[in-house]
Amino acid sequence: MSTETSPEPDPAPEADARRCGWIAIVGRPNVGKSTLLNALVGQKVSITSNKAQTTRHRIHGIRTVGSTQFVFIDTPGFQTRHAAALNRTLNRTVQGVLADVDLVLFVVEAGRFGLDDAKVLSLLAAAGADAPPVVLVANKLDAVHRRAELAPWLKGMQERHPFAEYVPLSARRDADVQRLLGILEPYLPQQDWFYDEDALTDRSERFLASEIVREKLFRLTGDELPYTSTVVIDSFQEEGELRRIAASIVVERDAHKGMVIGDRGAMLKRIGTEARQELERLTGGKVFLELWVKVRSGWADDEEHLRSYGYE
């Protein structure tokens, strides 16, 4: 009979040796902010798609490494082209985040800087002397075919803003993500952690369920369905490892309802199947998911509807 014992787990670092801070991830739509957040956390906590404004809420992603806890805030892509109430609400979310963080990650596509990027950068510059440090994250480095062309581009970016760091990377490469975490760590204040060591997000399963359905909706309908569609959870019941979820997909027109339902209900069934499968992977249990499609004309430009659907 063996007398060997398992080694004791490493004790949690003392509170006075810990670092913890808020890090905002900002940028124009479709630069890969949510993909970067998921990579930094090490698990999917924010949905992704090619449709602009996929992220609509302030989402906290949490990663604890050694004595440091990083609390990342994924923000909606700052919208400059549409003035609907939905977009005004999303932009207020971005601006509100910037006042309360220790560090900002300004995400752009490596080698590109357009008018929409410049408008987001102007928000950071407007914060003045009290603004937190800003790290330039040049994402999608894997899409740059000639790396030598990045040097003059980076030089031009240095002239645009006094960035604290310049980090070209691909959010899909783990080595790049680990390097970024190491760069960010010294910028966080020495203080106790805000969350438990194993926490990944501050959002509930109910919220994540609505987001996952919305992700499948956008991914499967592509550009046919306008971005002014949302998902509302009508009921969420937990019975041990079983979740019973009823949700409504809200669109603005009857024609959009037809797109979501599809021929003989095929599209709606596919959205539900893919969402249910991902929810089962997320929760580790069985999920029963019912989906309905409702038409609410003009909801995206109605402040009362926005509040009732959970927009800040």
Keywords:
six-stranded mixed beta sheet; globular; Rossmann fold; alpha/beta; membrane; 312 residues; 9 helices; single chain; three-stranded mixed beta sheet; GMP Synthetase, Chain A, domain 3
Describe the 3D structure.
The protein is an alpha/beta fold. The protein is 34% helix and 22% strand. It folds into two domains: 173 residues, Rossmann fold (3-Layer(aba) Sandwich); 104 residues, K homology (KH) domain (GMP Synthetase, Chain A, domain 3), CATH 3.30.300.20. Helix 6 packs antiparallel against helix 8. The longest helix is centred in the last third of the chain and has 18 residues. The chain starts with 18 loop residues before the first strand and ends with a helix.
The largest β sheet comes out as:
6 strands, mixed
DSSP helical segment count:
9
Could you tell me the strand content as a percent range?
A: 15-25%
The shape, in one word, is globular
Number of strands: 9
Task: Produce the secondary structure layout.
Blueprint: E1 19-26, H1 33-41, E2 59-65, E3 68-74, H2 85-98, E4 103-109, H3 115-126, E5 134-139, H4 150-160, E6 165-168, H5 174-184, H6 205-221, E7 230-239, E8 242-251, H7 254-261, H8 266-283, E9 286-295, H9 303-308
Parallel strand pairs: 1-3, 1-4, 4-5, 5-6, 8-9
Antiparallel strand pairs: 2-3, 7-8
Subunit structure: Monomer.
GO molecular function: GTP binding; GTPase activity; ribosomal small subunit binding; small ribosomal subunit rRNA binding
Main location: cytoplasm
